Amino acid sequence: MALNTEQKTTLYRNLIRADEFNKMMYRRMMQGKLIGFYHPAEGAIAPGVGAASFLNQDDNLSPHHRGHGITHMLAKGIDIKYYLAEHTGKDTGCCKGRSAFHFSFPDHKVYMMSGFIGYNFAPVVGWGFAAKRRNQGQVVMNCSGDGSYGQGRAHEAMLMAQNWKLPVIFFCENNGMSIFSTAMEMHPKEHISSLADGFGMPSSIVDGQDVFAVAEASVEAIDRARKGEGPTFIEAKTLRFNEHDIGTPDLSGWEERSEEEHASMREREPVRIATARVLDEGILTQSAIDQIIEEALAEVQGVEDFADSSDIARPSVEQLMDGVFAK
């Protein structure tokens, strides 16, 4: 599905924002200014931006853990200052500073993050079932990595979604690595999307370094889901430039990834690819690009200022219990 100039500009702007936020999170982690840990998104920012930029506010989104979902959430319109405040243990955080890297933005239909690989598959089927019953054109964007498709619940979710024609997009961000294990070791076929064939589910493979290609496939799948035509599987072939999470050895199997591999990957940097495209097609001028970068940096600074100036969360026992039991 071809994108228009306005859509391409939105994607480029969100890609730059995602890049600058990822750099900020990496820097703050190295400075000791984040609680918990951080899974850097460098090299893999395009899939989240392409998948989420054209969702509606009432569409459900389950972000991937890479970049802690920031690339997905900012593209959907979520104000990241509340998440950074959460990640720094501040009372103004989206979960009142009690969860470190976990998040919840119910108003935007982004409900949770978990430390369990593949946790998302059961909830997204439930959200999809609810969306179908409401019949208001809602869709569910389920983003997860190649490693999650080794989980049994992934296959159960795909089976149920296809049987019931649920409006769910299974969006696989395949960076070829599950911490230290390669996708080639973990899966019997080259393409994770081949799993969809067994369920009769439409699927596509896209260049996950090209935000425009990702968005084209996502818009088409979203349109199918809104029309009641059922689920789609999208496999975005992307890259992980850094270690799994900051401080973990950058290994492939038992061996450190080589300088040659890193150099080859960085030739496929998403911002570089997108910048060349918008300039070549005359969508943006260099001065317009510079302005977008300046605005993104100002946004990041504002988010940091908000988090840093917020009070540290010091909940009482009673306040902590409020988040445990329903009333």
UniProtKB/TrEMBL annotation:
Annotated keywords: Oxidoreductase, Thiamine pyrophosphate
Keyword Transferase attached: no
Basic and acidic residues bias spans: 254-267
Gene3D superfamilies in the cross-refs: 3.40.50.970
Record domain Dehydrogenase E1 component: where: 26-313
Region (Disordered): 247-267
Cited SUPFAM superfamilies: Thiamin diphosphate-binding fold (THDP-binding) (SSF52518)
Pfam family membership, one: E1_dh
Record's protein name: Thiamine pyrophosphate-dependent dehydrogenase E1 component subunit alpha
Organism: Congregibacter brevis
Species classification: Bacteria, Pseudomonadati, Pseudomonadota, Gammaproteobacteria, Cellvibrionales
